[in-house]
Write a structure and sequence with these properties.
Layout (H helix, E strand, L loop, with lengths): L19 H13 L3 H10 L10 E6 L1 H7 L4 H5 L2 E2 L5 H5 L6 E3 L6 E3 L10 E2 L2 E2 L6 E2 L3 E6 L28 H13 L4 H10 L9 E6 L1 H7 L6 H6 L2 E2 L5 H4 L6 E4 L6 E7 L2 E4 L2 E10 L3 E6 L8 H4 L4 E2 L12
Parallel strand pairs: 1-8, 9-15, 11-16
Antiparallel strand pairs: 1-2, 3-4, 5-6, 7-8, 9-10, 11-12, 12-13, 13-14, 14-15
Helix pairs in contact: 1-2, 6-7
């Protein structure tokens, strides 16, 4: 059994964009800190890459890395940029195998920090202990060499997704308790309470995937207690799908949810995977052998019928909820 805590108190906003001044300030600090090559590169690609996002984290290779590898391609630079602000505390919450989305479409970095490590490690490369630059929206960490886009952790049979019943070594109770405790400590208490009260036990069939909005989004959108069951059911899919499974779906694919008639449409926007128009910025918030949770940046709303026309529908047999139960 394996779990991953990819939990961030900071939540990504779709409004606005990184100011050019912040990017050039970061470049100045990089240059003063001995990362001259990345400082110059950052200035050149600022308009193309960073100014399209309201927040970002940059992983800056050292001058010696540039000298050894030469000027990186634009795609390789995108692989060193994450479209969210990763603080040191949030990075330390990552367990080995957690995925970090990048600005290179369909490509993620992998957390490789072990419990014995003093420094955070990504793709088996250690980061500087503190950000070289941090203004709250833009953070820059130093690394001693370029990330390898082909990096993979050794495969493990217990991390494979499954959409069919199988023998499990852990009890359903254990699986849910792990997910609930992780979500409660990471700003997803509303979703955790829903799992505890309404979904306890259903993952014993084929597993579930939860698209979890943060607490502030939930509390701001629903006030009537009678709306809670349908609100949460539409954020849950009766199938266990890790981030690596989701990125392999074609644009226009649809996932059935626990809310009858509500489907989740998968598309891409600027290389970012989106569900009913809502980006997933925190993949694999939690996963074990029955449950996968992905953090989303907003509430999932229904899509226009025309938007779903001719889409490939990924359906699942039956609905594990008895609609008369609530």
């Amino acid at each position: 059994m394996k779990q991953s805590a990819f939990v961030f108190v900071l939540f990504f906003s779709l409004a606005g964009a990184l100011p050019r001044e912040a990017i050039f300030d970061a470049a100045d600090v990089l240059s003063d800190s001995g990362f001259v090559s990345m400082a110059l590169t950052l200035e050149v690609v600022a308009e193309t890459l960073l100014e399209q996002s309201p927040s970002a984290t940059v992983f800056a290779p050292s001058d010696s890395a540039f000298k050894k590898s030469g000027q990186p391609s634009l795609d390789l630079l995108r692989f060193h940029l994450a479209p969210l602000p990763l603080t040191p505390s949030s990075l330390r919450l990552l367990t080995a195998g957690a995925k970090i989305p990048t600005m290179l479409s369909g490509q993620s970095l992998t957390a490789t920090t072990s419990s014995a490590d003093r420094l955070t490690s990504i793709n088996n490369i250690k980061l500087t202990q503190s950000p070289i630059y941090d203004d709250g929206s833009l953070l820059v960490y130093g690394i001693d060499r370029f990330f390898d886009p082909n990096f993979q952790l050794p495969s493990s049979s217990d991390s494979n997704s499954s959409c069919s019943a199988k023998n499990h070594t852990a009890s359903v109770s254990d699986s849910f308790n792990q997910a609930i405790q992780t979500l409660k400590t990471g700003g997803y208490s509303a979703v955790a309470a829903f799992l505890e009260m309404q979904l306890f036990g259903v993952a014993e069939f084929s597993g579930i995937t939860v698209f979890a909005p943060a607490d502030d989004l939930v509390l701001n959108r629903i006030g009537d207690f009678s709306q809670y069951p349908s609100f949460f059911r539409r954020h849950v899919v009766p199938c266990r799908l890790l981030w690596n499974d989701l990125v392999n779906f074609d644009d226009g694919s649809e996932l059935s949810s626990f809310l009858e008639g509500f489907t989740i449409n998968i598309t891409r926007s600027g290389g970012v995977l989106v569900f009913n128009g809502v980006p997933v910025f925190f993949p694999d918030v939690f996963f074990n052998d029955r449950i996968v949770v992905h953090g989303v940046s907003n509430i999932l709303a229904s899509q226009n019928t025309a938007f779903r026309h001719n889409a490939h529908v990924v359906d699942y047999e039956g609905n594990l909820f008895d609609t008369s139960e609530f």
